[in-house]
Amino acid sequence: MEQVILDVREQDEFAAERVPGSIWVPLSNFGHTAPGVLQSLVGKKVLIMCRSGNRARLALKQIAQLGFAGQVDAEVFEGGIMEWA
């Protein structure tokens, strides 16, 4: 299964450091932007990343609220960009 990183940090954080190929959907605009992005990720493994994991957990809850819980296999990348780096 193809794996995708969904980065929910804000623009300045994403611009400063990011995982190559990651998709940027800031948590502050998640409810508006995420549905279109999530539609394109149906059937893929999605790792949600933020700085340390807190915002990623909030985004995971929003994915369920938006109705994508059974369609997108999403989980939090524990430790976030700090762990990845």
What do these coordinates show?
It is globular and about 30 Å long. The longest helix has 12 residues. It contains 4 helices and 4 strands. By secondary structure, the chain is an alpha/beta fold. The mean pLDDT is 95. The N and C termini lie far apart (24 Å). The protein has a 4-stranded parallel beta sheet with strand order 2-1-3-4. The relative contact order is 0.25.
Protein traits:
single chain; alpha/beta; 4-stranded parallel beta sheet; 40% helix; globular; 85 residues
How does the SSE layout of this entry go?
Blueprint: E1 3-7, H1 11-16, E2 23-24, H2 30-40, E3 45-49, H3 54-65, E4 73-76, H4 80-84
Parallel strand pairs: 1-2, 1-3, 3-4
